[in-house]
Amino acid sequence: MRIETAVTRLLGIELPIVQAGMSWAASAPELPLAVARAGGLGVIAAGPMRLPDLERTIDTVRAGTDAPFAVNLPLYRKGADGVIDLLLAKRIPILIASQGGPKRYLERFRDAGTICLHVVAAEEHAAKAAAAGVDGLIVVGGEAGGQPPASMVSTLVMLRAVVRAVPAIPVIASGGFADGQGLAAALALGAGAAQFGTRFMASTEANLHPAYKDLVLGAGVEDTRTVGRELGMIRALANDFTERMAALENTGADLDQRRTQFTTSTLKMAAFDGDVADGKVEAGQSVGLIDEILPAGEIIHKIANEYLATLAALPRAKGQVRAVMD
């Protein structure tokens, strides 16, 4: 099956389905490799990885498929310049950069032939990234897990705003997508693909502790919390950590108190160690739409088939639409 859009043509993928670079969940080759083999864009998460591990993961994915894949790099991470040097040396097909400006990396990756996507969460940033010359944008809305935009504007609205602001550049929508109906909505709103994060956390290949996956499966759409304003706000599943943070925020605790609590808990505690009470169990609001763990390839095929079924079920207009004139 192929679903052709501006994004699939740009990236050389068969389906407009992008697996988010979700830190620990995508810090091993199994998930991005499975997604790439199934026709989507598999993404390696460079954020938490040491350089030797990242190099091995890139080599494993490249050896396992001829399909394109991407590496996600948060530009604020410690040692980002060293990661950039490694990615240039490995001549990765696609770079997804976030948490920083594109001028830092764009010229060198363009010279290396790498397609560059930049993550944005506001019209202003989208216009600047497009003007700088990135090849495409990933637009993140307030529903997203991990680090949603501080404005909390929904993907529904932010995506339309960005598409209107920079209509000539391919756009991927991110935040709130878990199924083929969501993919249909993203494409209808002007995106060329949708990015799925939380949905792929509930895959057999996701590099997450079983306790993390169990919490994802048991959660509803109202079970996430946003905590950590002024500290790098995150959206995570409600647990003891989010309750402590919310208590500090609601009582007006000073920034140092909140920072101490916020930094004491980590994503690694939950994702790697399985401490889902005191760790950061990052997830998006779409967590409530997920009720089973499946192989990543099956998730891809299910989303694509749901998309086709959604299109077939849409009402068809009869006759001609007539303009109403005063």
Task: Write a structural description.
It is a single chain. The protein is of the alpha/beta class and 326 residues long. The protein is 40% helix and 14% strand. The chain is built from 14 helices and ten strands. The chain has helices at residues 6-11, 30-37, 51-64, 80-90, 106-111, 123-132, 155-165, 180-188, 198-201, 210-218, 240-250, 255-264, 267-271, 296-313; strands spanning 17-19, 42-45, 69-74, 94-98, 115-120, 136-140, 171-174, 193-196, 224-227, 234-237. The protein has an eight-stranded parallel β-sheet with strand order 1-8-7-6-5-4-3-2. Helix 2 packs parallel to helix 3 (51-64) and helix 8 (180-188) packs across helix 14 (296-313). The model has no long low-confidence stretch (mean pLDDT 96).
Secondary-structure element series: HEHEHEHEHEHEHEHEHHEEHHHH
Calculate the terminal CA-CA distance, rounded to whole Å: 47 Å
Mean pLDDT: 96
The largest sheet has its strands arranged as: 1-8-7-6-5-4-3-2
Major sheet size, sense and barrel closure: 8 strands, parallel
Structural class: alpha/beta
Helix content: 40-55%
Shape: globular
Radius of gyration: 19 Å
**Unreliable residue runs:** none
What is the β-strand count? Answer: 10
Strand content: 5-15%
Looking at the chains present, what oligomeric state does this protein adopt?
A: single chain
Q: Count the DSSP helices.
A: 14
